[in-house]
Amino acid sequence: MTNAQWPPRRTTTRPARPDLEALTGLRSGKPHYYPEYRVAAERMRRVIHALERISAALVRTMEGSEALVRAVVEAAANHLSAEWVAFALVDGELPDARPRHLVRGPDGAEWPDLDTVPDRVREHVHHVHRAQADSGEHSPEVTRRHLHVPVRLDGRVVGGFVAWTPVEREIDGTDQSVLRILAGQTAAALQNCALLDHSARLYDHATRQADDLKVRNDQLVATQAELGAARQREVLDVERHRIARELHDSVTQYALSAGMHIELVRSEIEDDRLRAQLDTAKDLTRRAVEQLRSAIYALNERDGCADEDLPSMLRRLSGVHMPDELRVEVRIGGKPVALPADCEQSLFRIAGEALFNTAVHADASRAVVRLAYTCSHIRLTVSDDGTGSPDCVRRSLRASVATPSGEHRGLVNMQTRAKELGGSLTFRRARLGGLQVQVDVPVPCAPERNDP
Questions:
Q1: Total structural domains in the chain?
Q2: DSSP reduced 3-state for 147
């Protein structure tokens, strides 16, 4: 018996599942699945769009609470396709948030005046302000088209959203979930706005305080510098007065006594040669006394008044403690310009030293002090009709600089002051016949050299 040959098994190809069934897992054979899918898909699309609007609204936190409130009200209105949307804050809650309420009408415009909105909208806004909960006693028709969502922060109600939709737009559970999410995020965002605004005010206040402290510190530093300078001037004044007193009470008295003894001896000697020598000694003693008196005056004299300019200082210098036989003139040329105090004092001291040398050493009867202002430099000259020689003065200055011995310190001081001002000191023959001392300094006494 042979094995029976079974007919081959026929294989059947199962038809491909439709796209809808492959994507959703729903069989198109049951007609109610597809409508449910469409409803769920539409809800999902609206939720996604609503969350996008909420995200776009919440990023307005940096712009302040006013921009944030407008953005969340617009997001709620767009999601619900609402005719009226109202947002309000409870009185006393989030006090820095503005505006306290915002109503958006059917045309998408804001209604700032509550007296012009419908009664139902105005009453709900007042209820939110007074923290009164919605009674919930509405007809089914109103419930399908009316939504009230409280805004909570840390467990307490701080505000609320109220919305009314048109007849063709019913509110479902998805809408309530979206509005609750929006309300919660709005509360947190408003609190962040308040914190950000408070931080900005603190930063501005701290910045103003820092600027004020900087100004006060600068003033304190300047005051300390002025006090230090005043203290130095006081110490110098005390020391100058002490030296002047010592010169007056000791050295000058000795010189006067020496002159009196010379005169006494001269009256008892008949030898003409000795009398001539005693005359010379007497004249030297007189000059020494005059020099001491000028030095005492210079030590006792202050730097002048704070509001006194250089021309006035030179005029004052020409009329004090000058010998009767020396006539001093002061001439000012050009337009005077304001100079730093140290520059004016240095020029004043140079002029004083030059006049002192003229009065003591030059045997002059006339001296001219000239101060000339130009746009680039200042020139101070002291000329006389005495017996001084420019060559001798230059040699004395060079010798004193090369080997300091205490002699001719006046010439060295004049040259030092001129160099400190960035200028130059020269000696030449004056038109009056004697010596001319000339100082040129740049304007406004800058450190760099500016030879005329």
A1: 2
A2: strand
Q: How far is CA 328 from CA 36, 65, 218, 352, 385, in A?
A: 119, 81, 46, 12, 11
From the list 386, 447, 449, 438, the residue with the least C-alpha distance to 414 is: 438
CA distance 138 to 143: 6
Q: What is the pLDDT of residue 2?
A: 44
H or E element in which residue 19 lies: helix 19-24
User: What totals of helices (H) and strands (E) does the chain contain, helices first?
Assistant: 12, 9
Domain assignment present for residue 311? The answer is yes
- Rounded CA-CA distance 423/442 in Å is 7
Domain extent for 84? 19-200
Is 352 among the domain residues? yes
Question: What percent of the chain is modeled with pLDDT above 70?
Answer: 80
Mean pLDDT of the chain: 80
Tell me how crowded residue 326 is: count the other CB atoms within 10 A of its CB.
Answer: 20
Token match 């409280």: residue? Answer: 150
d(Cα 381, Cα 331) in Å, to the nearest integer?
A: 10
Residue pLDDT, tens place only, 75-123? 888 888 899 999 999 999 998 888 999 999 988 899 989 999 999 999 9
DSSP characters for 107-137?
Answer: TS-B---GGGS-HHHHHHHHHHHTTPPP---
pLDDT of 444 above 70: no
Residue 77 in any domain: the answer is yes
Out of 147, 171, 200, pick the residue that ends a domain: 200
Residue type, 49: H
pTM: 0.44
- The CATH number given to whatever domain includes residue 359 is 3.30.565.10
Rounded Cα gap, residues 348 and 362, in angstroms: 20
Within-domain flag for 149: yes
